[in-house]
Amino acid sequence: MYPAINPGLVSNLEKLGLTENEGKAYAGLVSLKEATAREVHELTGVPRAKVYDILKTLSRKGFVEVRQGSPVYFRAVDPKHVIGRIKNEFFTCAIEALDQLNELSYEIPRSSPVWCIQSEWGIRKRVREILYNVREELIVFSTNPEFLGEFESDLKKLEKNCRLILIVDDLNKFRGMPFDFTETGKDFGDFVRNMFIDGVQYTEDCFMIADGKESIAVHSAGNNREAVVIRLPVVCHLQKLIYNWLVEGGFIIDTHQ
Questions:
Q1: What is the pLDDT of residues 16-44, one digit of tens each?
Q2: Average pLDDT, integer, range 179-189
Q3: Are the C-beta atoms of 215 and 230 separated by less than 8 Å?
Q4: pLDDT band at 256 (very low <50, low <70, confident <90, very high)
Q5: What residue segments make up the domains of the chain, in order of their start?
Q6: Fewest CB atoms within 10 Å of the CB: 44, 127, 174, 201?
């Protein structure tokens, strides 16, 4: 009885461009060293009716060598050579694609001032871009010390060059960070942590207004995080007016850690 093929290995081979059955067949051949199509089928579970054609496809891709005869035998090409070639091709392809993308310059009559970002990588990248471009004032509200902590070094740099206003829902959660924070009142903190829309709970992880011109709201909706970026000065001005109203109304307490 043959041991099962590692599904993690097959998944990685799929990411390198093979199909699931191609990944299983190649991994099986690496394990067997040299085998017939039937032996590959018995080890990997690749359908018997498909395994021969799959091995021939792997041969054309350079993963497998074929020894003609009766029966036909197949042998895996050394994984170091195969993966090395794929890595080089992928790197070259990535560089060429980047160059080609940078050459694109289509005239867009109008760009939307509102964008929604739903990937963790994209959200962090956009926050860092906003922090990098701040020149005069940054207002930050956060309920999530882990998320805000990812940008601690960026915020420390801003302290020297612009007005930095940091507001949190609970000072105790943020005591480990080297900033002076202003705390919201309990009612407002409870509100932003427990908003429900159509039965889905929303929690405002972080909100920023940069120079009164651009804002980003990062919130968790259920188990997903997303961000809304607004580059519309009139909206950002209204958001800042709301902040001033909250201060004047006592919803934001002028207390520092």
A1: 888 999 999 999 899 888 889 999 999 88
A2: 78
A3: yes
A4: very low
A5: 7-99, 114-253
A6: 201
Best CATH choice for the domain 114-253 from the list 3.30.870.10, 3.40.30.10, 3.40.50.300, 1.10.3210.10: 3.30.870.10
- Token readout for 12 is 């990685």
Which pLDDT value is given to residue 98?
Answer: 83
Nearest-5° Cα angle at 60, 56 to 66? 55
What residue type is 169 in one-letter code? D
Helices (H), 104-216: 120-133, 145-149, 152-159, 186-193
The full DSSP string for 197-223 is ETTEEEEEEEEEEETTTEEEEEEEETT
**Single-letter amino acid code for the residue at 253:** I
Q: Are strands 163-168 and 182-184 parallel, antiparallel or unpaired?
A: parallel
AA letter at 194: N
Distance CA 53, CA 56 (A): 5
Q: What tokens does 232 get? A: 């519309």
Enclosing H/E stretch for 91 = helix 79-103
